[in-house]
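User: Round two. Same drill as before: sequence, then structure, for each protein.

Assistant: Same drill it is. First protein:
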Amino acid sequence: MVGAMRSQIGIVGAGPAGLFLAHLLHRAGIASVILETRSRAAVESTIRAGMLGDWVVRLMRDMGLAERLEREAHFHDGVTLQVGETRQHLDLAGLTGGKQVTIYAQHEVLKDLIAARLADGGEMHFEAHVTSLDGIEADRAAIHFTQAGVAHRLDCDFIVAADGFHGPGRLAIPAEARSEYHKDYPFAWLGILCHAPRSWPELIYARHEDGFALLTTRSDSIQRLYIQCDPGDPIEAWPDARIWDTLQCRLATPGWSLTEGAIFQRSIIPLRSFVCETMRHGRLFLAGDAAHIVPPTGAKGLNLAVADVRILARAFERFYAHADTTGFETYAATALGRIWKGERFSWWMTTMLHRDPSETAFEHRIHAAELAYVMNSTAAQAALAENYLGLPFAD
């Protein structure tokens, strides 16, 4: 084994949670090392949803990480809801005192955070495969990993597992000590990227008798679109012609047509809700997708991950500045208060906008009535706007 490395905080995962945490700790003078199983190229090219909450954008600006975002992101004052062929603009900015919808793909955020991390001299190890976590119930913790076939050990005061649902972090907590909640949805999203000009100035969330559709954007010439599909569908079942026919049908409205283009990326994404309420076990902390997953309908995944580490970074600051462990003891409860609200909102948006193949005729009518209420009630739209753009923090 190569000689052991040492850091105050060992972070497993170079996704939004791990990278934002590393930057927050750096600003507080706390050392951290990031271990990521994928290559840098893979991290920076994996396509994920891209709606940033208003407070996340402000955080990036405050941290000096928003230079490219300011140039390349798309800022909208609202979103459009569509039922059948009827559309309605929701003025989210007007309902929230000027907060905007910011479209900036997650992998672009990660590019910015990685570049800034390396420019700061922060330590990161890509293609580092974690084999075990030791000492999480002892006085010192350690992360064992291999890189290029060589075994390494990172000794640290604490470990933060920001390594996603399938990572080793959550599984290092004994099963009998974990409290978990799951929901799998009976539908999935087929997402595409295509070369085409924008067809609409903002996002469209459409509920159609045949299923959900979402129109969003990546740039003036690249568009991101989604359609509800069966989670068991092979991607080969969706050739270009079928994709465009389905999108044209579900997004149709009089006097308007969707501009098509060359599809250069497609994937089928299962939808699930998941929460692990055990977010701390000894010297191990969970953050981001390691602790919770939401269906993408509510645009909460990245935003909840950043909220976790905002809370956790302050707990580490209090510990290293004042030997105060209060933040560790309250981390899970504080984070979960926000997580469950995000889970509720994401579940609500998902069930309201999708056609569940197992729903009864009564449930179908209820979802349609709920959507009609949102489209015609300022109070309901204000609640949607507050949740969609990001609930405020207490401090």
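Second protein:
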Amino acid sequence: MSESKINSIHELLCKKSSTKQLVFNLTQTIFRDLKMVMRDIESELGPKLGNNAPNVEVKYMDRGDFEAHLKFSGDTLVIMMHTNVFDFDNEHYITKSPYVKEDPLREFCGMIQIYNFLSDSIKYNREHDMGYLIARIFINKDEHFFIDGKRPLSFMFDDLSKNIITKETLRTIIEEAMLFCLNFDLIAPPTDAINYITVEQKNIMSYSSGMPTGKMLGFTMQREENTTTL
């Protein structure tokens, strides 16, 4: 192998690969902070609900290094950290930012995903139930971040150059995600959609207390992605 190629590999490892490792470690630290925020919300809401809504449960559940749940009554936030670092398509608005053009390494981001599941989907292990993506938090090496997802989160945090991740912003993100879930109700499917069931579906209903269910039941949503996994 020529010396010029070795030098190119060395440079890429020192700059790009080193940056990706930094971003991964930073995202992991922020994910741990996010877990602490969820625990705090559990401890704050629990006593407040005790007298006014004794049957409503708020519960934090740690599912390992890359997943955590926050159950609040019929909804559960499932928050997952992706183990890869991401780049963005050349047409993505982030790549056109002066902040990124000044330092292209700022473009590499870790990702934390926030999903809304029905609490019963998890409780009864209804494997065919679908979660609803609320937000993806992208974090770069400078601890700057932006959110891709549902409003108001995507509107509040869309500027990578200005948004800096802190425990206060993490708290805001979780609170807004919870409000989104609470205002996003389960809609009954049309009668024609459930006129017939198979024996397998009947068995599923008996075993898991319900047909496969999601808040967008009866609808299919597709989204064109413009991120590249690395």
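The chain has a mean pLDDT of 82.

User: Perfect.
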